[in-house]
Protein: ABC transporter ATP-binding protein
Organism: Anaerovirgula multivorans
Amino acid sequence: MEQQWILHLKNISYNYPDGTLALDNLHVKIPKGQRIVFLGPNGSGKSTTFLHMNGVLKPQKGEVYYEGQKLSHKESKDLWRKVGIIFQDADTQLFSTSVYQEISFGPKNLGLSNEEVKKKVVEAMEATDVSKLQHKPVHFLSGGEKKRVSIADILAMDTEIILLDEPTISLDPKHATELMEILEELHKKGKTLIISTHDVNFAYSWGDYFYIMKEGKVLLEGSYQEVFKQQTLLKEANLEVPWILEIYYDLLEKGKIKAPYPPRNKQELLKYL
Ligand SMILES: Nc1ncnc2c1ncn2[C@@H]1O[C@H](COP(=O)(O)OP(=O)(O)OP(=O)(O)O)[C@@H](O)[C@H]1O
Ligand SMILES: [Mg+2]
């Protein structure tokens, strides 16, 4: 079957008003229903790419396609209905007075009935463990609580694509694990999930397809087998080799294991031993 691209950024370049060239002829295709990871050093353009994928920024050069349809600037304004974004900095995203109002804002804007809005908000609050905070003003929340509310915002909108820009930053281990469970559920429902992260170990075990960025361009892309064997290029993007792979290569070299393919997680590695 031919691969379906739900989103396609074609030859996108973008200069910020101060003249910084943040994206330099960027080419990105997002396969529908998959888990996509963006990796790359600070300032390589991951967040700017995400802002183009949900229409916050309009390309100065190049085109955006959604399900094969080229979007005009006017149409790309409506991308937020299909593509939810959890911002890297929760303060950029949150603005209403109480947590409940904040989370209800998105589904209300989508035109859902009051009853549907309430149902979506309650479900999103339960999933992110913020129900107890629902009457609290957003600006009194801790960093991690704000992050969870910003995740609830997007869950309540139930968009086809969810962009998560550094989602585990400021989450404690319990809530980071809960987020992973939420992502697993969303993946099972067929949602397309796109994450930017500096956590190479998580990315390696989680992603179906990888984009490695450097200086506003794609340095490397592909499946985990294709991308993580390119150790010189990974180093060029300031990325570490995932610890599972490091141990795997070490054991392979010493002849201690005969594994047909690199293990994806701790369980697979242990099976080889
Ligand atoms: N509002 C802005 N005005 C001017 N330059 C900006 C602005 N936002 C980002 N940039 C610049 O654009 C480039 C890409 O930034 P971007 O935030 O997309 O990188 P990133 O890969 O998300 O980095 P990080 O890992 O630090 O989140 C950087 O050089 C940055 O300094
Ligand atoms: Mg960023």
User: Anything to note?
Assistant: The chain is about 40% helix and 20% strand.
